[in-house]
Design a protein that fits this description.
CATH topology of the largest domain: Porin
Largest sheet: 12 strands, antiparallel, barrel
Number of domains: 2
Strand order of the largest sheet: 1-4-5-8-9-10-11-12-14-17-18-19
Length: about 300
């Protein structure tokens, strides 16, 4: 093997040809290439063009990331539970929504579900009262801003309007506001998420779900999201609903808990199985339609498609 005067490198020149070993420095390599231009590595023109195209296309795709997203969802559940209380009298409900988000963190959305708890007030002890109470659809309208507080810590602040279409809950019993006010409710909320754990507090700006003079009621929600295995998520939750309302010495405040397992099948399809329970007082949280307890323990199966 001919020695071109290249500094001795193991694997390039046999040790026998290098009687005088010395440290290799960058200047030695540059000097060698300058003295032997025929040995300078050259890139294939096609490879060079491909590399350039890759860099340019990567930059284009990075710039093409959408500033806004618009998503839709539709689903069905065997029972619509909210804060542990059934809204559909332990029966199935159809649900759907739309969400718009900007990369800055601002978002707005709407979500709807069929319900039964308002119209059930047309009954008392299972018998029609003669006053037709309406309100079979819940429409939630919301908007807010989500931003980073620190690494892996985000804050979310927003407003939520529960609009119960065409409801006249305040006419329960035949006389306006003798038992309840209008069901429409306004809340503001703030949430902090640290890794998989989220703490959220909601505050009512007026009467909460028709409870008279219940302004300032609040709900504390502690939950977590754990992907135990790919595509399987477990969500434990505990909550505390405080209601500034007391009837016959019984307060409407209560605690609730749930455990939800969700399976993501991909392409927007998910299924969930949840178990709910509360310690709500049966004297307040019972159905006017059939007298059954609305905060009882129970399982809920759901299917949702997002697109």
């Amino acid at each position: 093997m001919k020695n071109h005067g290249f500094p001795c490198l193991h694997g390039f020149v046999r040790p026998a040809q290098c009687p005088a070993q010395h440290p290799i420095v960058a200047q030695d390599i540059d000097s060698f290439i300058l003295k032997n231009p025929d040995l300078e590595p050259k890139m294939n023109p096609k490879a060079l063009a491909l590399a350039a195209l890759t860099l340019v296309s990567g930059a284009v795709f990075a710039q093409a990331a959408p500033e806004t997203t618009l998503t839709y969802n539709a689903g069905v559940v065997t029972d619509y539970r909210y804060r542990g209380i059934t809204q559909s009298r332990n029966q199935a409900a159809v649900q759907g929504g739309v969400d718009y988000a900007h990369k800055s963190g601002f978002y707005v959305g709407a979500w709807a579900s069929t319900i039964k708890w308002i119209a059930d007030n047309s009954y008392s002890g299972g018998t029609l009262t003669g006053t037709d109470i309406t309100g079979n659809v819940e429409l939630d309208l919301y908007g807010g801003y989500k931003f980073d507080l620190a690494k892996d810590v985000t804050m979310d602040v927003g407003y939520l309007r529960y609009q119960y279409q065409g409801n006249n809950l305040e006419m329960t019993g035949g006389t306006a506001r003798s038992a309840y006010g209008n069901a429409n409710t306004n809340e503001v909320y703030t949430a902090i998420t640290m890794g998989p754990i989220t703490a959220k507090y909601s505050y009512s700006l007026g009467d909460l779900f028709g409870y008279l003079d219940s302004k300032g009621s609040g709900y504390l929600d502690l939950s977590a999201n754990f992907e135990v295995i790919p595509s399987w998520t477990v969500t434990p939750h505990v909550g505390r609903q405080t209601v500034n309302y007391t009837v016959q010495g019984v307060n409407a405040s209560y605690n609730d808990m749930s455990l939800t397992v969700t399976k993501d099948f991909g392409k927007g399809l998910t299924t969930s199985l949840a178990y709910h329970g509360t310690n709500a007082e049966g004297g307040i949280y019972s159905s006017s339609f059939d007298g059954k307890y609305l905060g009882d323990r129970g399982a809920v199966l759901g299917v949702k498609y997002s697109f």
